[in-house]
Design brief:
The protein has about 325 residues and is mainly α. It is built from 13 helices and three strands, in the order H-H-H-H-H-H-H-H-E-E-E-H-H-H-H-H.
Length: about 325
């Protein structure tokens, strides 16, 4: 099965043009299933012996490990894709994962900050107090880092809200992706699908303040430099998804201890605020890079819930 898995990964990378994150997830999910088929001191099951009952046993084992329904659903989807590949390659005659139903997931409407809350948050960073507090609390390696990094962080936060980027798209940005004169970004999203997104004056202002910071980080790198990357870490290398999540959460907590923001929160806010101000749902779908309109439509529900919350709070007979 190891050889089949490597062929599957090759297929994902070069035929499906899957993102690195998708490839990592699929590899981990199928590898977990491979280990399930090879219990200690027992005979290893061949792929041709796997049927829907064994897939159900695997799913049950995931629940025994207290995994969330969304995680189980993702692993099952990975197995469906894997066995579909096996059928295509003539390794198996059928796709047993198709006969196992996906766990029913709760419909979650993301909690989105209001435009006033988010503007106040970003304006605070522009004014400096939150950035200053962060520099005082963080353990930077040098005094230069304490001055430079908050400017980079403000550019990250402004651009996430201005463009609705996924965190993977943000850290993957290169200088060639930016048209600063036209204030446009060219992004390679899920499934290697390219799209063009505008960004506003506030983000442009934050980026202009960051370029000098970037030059200094590249001047004396403390790791393998990433000269083409837009956003760099304090050592001059490419910034990671995990680092951006830490940055967003840290600044949000400095402004409001009750906020639990993450990069996707700014993407949610981008879509919800556009919709609230009259943007067309199809246009928002294009900006977000959603394949299906139904994925974008959940922001309609988020807008309705916000509207009802305002009504309940403001109307005397609510």
């Amino acid at each position: 099965m190891k050889k089949v898995l490597e062929k599957f990964i090759y297929y994902l990378r070069y035929e499906r043009n899957a993102s690195p994150q998708t490839i990592r997830n699929y590899r981990d999910d199928v590898e977990l299933f491979r280990k399930f088929l090879s219990p200690p001191d027992e005979k290893t099951l061949a792929l041709t012996e796997v049927d829907h009952r064994i897939i159900r046993e695997f799913v049950s084992s995931l629940y025994d490990r207290k995994l969330q329904k969304a995680t189980v659903a993702r692993k099952l989807a990975a197995l469906r894709t894997f066995f579909k590949f096996c059928v295509r390659e003539g390794i198996t005659k059928q796709n047993p994962a198709r006969l196992v139903s996906t766990p029913k997931l709760p419909k979650r409407v993301p909690r989105v900050l209001t435009a006033e809350e988010l503007n106040g948050f970003l304006d605070t960073l522009a004014g400096g107090p939150a950035g200053t507090q962060h520099a005082q609390r963080a353990k930077y390696q040098t005094k230069q880092d304490a001055v430079l990094i908050p400017r980079r962080d403000r550019a990250i936060l402004e651009l996430l809200y201005a463009s609705g980027l996924r965190v993977s798209e943000l850290v993957g940005l290169t200088l060639g992706n930016l048209d600063q004169r036209g204030q446009m970004l060219r992004v390679l999203g899920k499934g290697r699908k390219e799209r063009v997104i505008p960004y506003g004056g506030k983000a442009q202002e934050a980026l202009e303040a960051y370029w000098g910071v970037r030059d200094k980080l590249l001047k004396h790198p403390r790791t393998t430099p990433a000269p083409e990357s837009v956003f760099l870490n304090h050592r001059g290398g490419r910034l990671t998804d995990k680092s951006v999540r830490v940055i967003v959460k840290k600044y949000a907590r400095l402004v409001n201890a009750n906020w639990n923001l993450h990069p996707h929160s700014l993407r949610h806010a981008f879509a919800t605020h556009l919709l609230a101000d009259g943007a067309d749902l199809r246009a928002i779908q294009e900006l977000l890079g959603h394949v299906s309109l139904s994925t974008t439509q959940r922001y309609t529900q988020a807008s309705i819930e916000q509207l009802m919350a305002v009504y309940d709070k403001a109307h005397p007979h609510a």
